[in-house]
Amino acid sequence: MPPAGEFAYLDWLRKQTPSVPRVLVGPGDDCAVLDWSAGRPCLVTTDMLMDGTDFILAEAGPRRVGRKALAVSLSDIAAMAGRPVSAFAAVALPKSGGRELAEQLYHGLRELADAFNIALAGGDTNSWDGPLVVATTIVGEAVGRGPALRSGAKPGDWLLVTGPLGGSIRGKHLHFVPRVREALELHSLVELHAMIDISDGLAADVHHICAESHCGALLVAENIPVSDEAKSVTDGQSPLDHALSDGEDFELAFAVSPDDGRRLLRDQPIAGLELSHIGECIANGFWLENHGKRIQLEPRGWEHQLL
User: Fold this and answer.
1) Is residue 9 scored above 70 in pLDDT?
2) Is pLDDT of 8 > 80?
3) What's the rounded Cα separation, in Å, for the pair 106 and 126?
């Protein structure tokens, strides 16, 4: 039985955390100290995941929860075509069994941090009478042409996605691989006019691009890649509906010029991915074309309710 208490856990955590050159001061002080002498714009993203909403701890287990928590934030860095540098995690632990839970969460975080060569540079722990809450923050840097924003799409651009969509509740939302490397490769190959990770759902997230870019979009139903998981769900919704609105796919949707879009489709240059052309940006309106029939598309997807 390890020593109890927050400080004993922090001492254990520091011993697990290797030193990294760009982290001058890591866990154990009031702040981490990072070396930001590279001169590139800094990217910062934060996500909060809660038991019962974003995962079910009793089903997923703490290690997979820790991995997902970091993966969600890494996906935001991917959406900006950035390079992650360091991560921070704050957890609100249930009072019962909190130490063992915290250690398993750390191992899940560590697994993905090591896979993407980023430092776990600090965070915070607390305990309460409620369920597990995990908040992660990643600090990264822009590369190449700079961050890929949501706001640069324009009428005539092609819209592409990096993989099949829908049915993430069947397991993908817990074990997906953030498209960090793929986004960096795309960023080096073409000019990304706008990009977003599909966390809320394809319809909702493409609508976010449209809202920020002050344009519309036309999606072509037959071109939207639908996952096998979406095809296997039997809840009265069609596989296409799941692909449009389930969310937590964590693929990338992005806008490029037609010439760049044609080249990407012809060459399929990203190993392990099949890029799909799902539609195009238009002057205004938000539409779905299904077998030649055009209907207005609602930006369906996940939205937290704030009462």
Assistant:
1) no
2) no
3) 14
